[in-house]
Amino acid sequence: MKILGQVAFLLLLGGIWCQNNRNAKASGKSTKKSGGNQGGDVGQSAPVVDLTPGSTENTGGTGSARGTGGSAEAGQEGTAGARAAGQQTTDDMRLHFLKNTQVTCNDGTAAGFYLKEFRGSRRWLLFLEGGWCCYSKETCDSRYQNIPRLMSSSGWPQTKRGTGILSSQAEENPHWHNANIVFIPYCSSDVWSGTGPYTFMGSLIIREVIKDLIPKGIKQAKVVMLSGTSAGGTGVLLNIERVASQLEQLGAETQVRGLVDSGWFIESKQQRSPNCPETVSCSPEDAIKIGLRLWNGVVPDRCRQLYKRGEEWQCFFGHKLYSTLTSPLFVVQWLFDEEQLRVENIYMGGQSLSEEQWQYIQNLGRELKNSLRDVTAVFAPSCLSHTVITKSNWMSFQVRGTSLPRALQCWDRSLEATRNNRTPAKGCPFHLVDTCQWPQCNPTCPALVDQATQQELTLLQMLVAMGLDLQKLGLDPQGDEDSLASMVSNGG
Prior knowledge:
The longest helix has 19 residues, at about 230-250. The protein has one domain. The protein is built from eleven helices and 16 strands. The strands form four sheets. It has a ten-stranded mixed beta sheet with strand order 4-1-2-5-3-6-7-8-10-14. With about 500 residues, it is an alpha/beta fold. It has helices at about 135-145, 200-215, 230-250, 285-295, 300-305, 320, 340, 355-370, 405-420, 460-465, 475-490, and strands at about 90-95, 110-115, 125-130, 160, 180-185, 225-230, 255-260, 330, 335, 375-380, 385, 400, 400-405, 430-435, 450, 455. Belongs to the pectinacetylesterase family. Notum subfamily. This is Notum pectinacetylesterase 2. InterPro entries: PAE/NOTUM. One of its GO terms (molecular function) is palmitoleyl hydrolase activity.
C-alpha cells in the first residue's frame, strides 16, 4: 500500500490528540517486539508520551489527591498492582483473543477482550477502553516503544482486575459487581470507528467480540450495557445502535444501553490554521474529517442521514448525535472537562492563565450544561477532571446529594419500570447537573493539585498561582471563597 501523503492533525475525542498510523502493514504480524504491561488493574495504563508539540510526558492536568485527576488514558484509573500470568483469582478477567484472526490491532497482532463471567447473571457490561493515536512513522514508533499495548496485543497480560464499575467487589461496585464484565482493549487507533481492511478496525473488533460472546450466553442477556471512557465513550455513541442491531439479528431479546463517560464534547471555538493537513493545529472538526477518510470510519445511520456527504463528522459530537439514538443512554460528563480545555491549550496547574482563557473556562461550563439539557439520564458535576467510572473512588462524587452509582441504579429502575408498564419510583433522580457556576463549586470534586509541589489547592489559589489578578477580575479571594462555600452548602 502506498504511503499516504504526510497528514498531521489534532483530534479531541475523549481527550486525545489523535494521530494515525499510515505505515502499518496490510497483513501479518509486526516484526517489532513490544514490552507492554505484564499485568495490572484495568484502567492502569503504562506511562503515555504526549506526542503533540509543547506537551510533556504523561500530562495529568490538575491531578488529584483523590486519584481522579489527569487523562483517562495516561492517568491512573485504578489501583496499581501487577499480577504475573497464571495467578488468576476469581476476581480477575481473563484474556480471550478473537476467533476471527483477520480483525487485528494496528500491528497485525490478534485483537481480543477480557472476560469475567458471573454464572447465572443475565446482565452484561461491555467496556471500551480509551487511548492515544499516532500520525507518522516517527510518532508511531515512539508510541510503539512507550505504550505498545495500545497498538499491539503482544504485551497484554493474561488477566486483569477491574476497578470502579468494572470491579467485582460489591463495596466498590454495588450494582454491577455481579454482572458478566467484558473489557475490550483499544489497539486500533480509530476511536472505535474504523471498518477498513488495512489497520483501523475498531468497529469491527466490537462486532467480533459480540460474536465470540455468543457461546458465553450473551444472546440470553436481559441487559447489555455498552460503556466507555474518553475515546471509548465516543465509541459508545458511535456503536451502540450497531451493537443493538447485531444482537437483535442474532435473536437476542435484550435491551442494549449506553454509558458514556467523558466522551461528550462540544466544538472548539479557537481559530486554527487554514492549512490543517499540513499542521497539527487542526480544529476537532477538520481532524475528524481527515480521520474518517483514513479510518474508513462509520457513524450511526440515522445521524448520517441528517448530513450531506462530507459532513458525517458531526456525528462524533454527542449533542448532535443524541437525538438520533433509540437505545437508552446515560452520559457522565465533568462540566469543566480537562481534555476539552486542553484542545484550547489550557492546562490547569501547569502554565499561566490569561483572562481570556479564564473566561473560556467559565463559558465552557455553561455550554456543556446547555448541551446536556435534553439528555434524559446524565450526571454532570461542576468539576475540573476527566473520566470517572473506572476510578476506585467513583462512588465519592455527588450531585445534589446523589452519587453516580445511585443515579445509575435509579436509571436502571426507571427503564425496568417502563419495560414492565409500571410507573417509575419517585425520589430516585438520574438527571443530575450541577447548578452552581464555578469550577470546583461541588464539594465532592476531585482535589486540585499543584504540579510542582503536589499540594492541594483551592480554585482561587490555583488561579493566583497561574498568574491571574483576582482583584482586576473583580474577585475578592476571601469573599469569593465564602461565596463558593455558600453555593456548595446549598447543594451545588
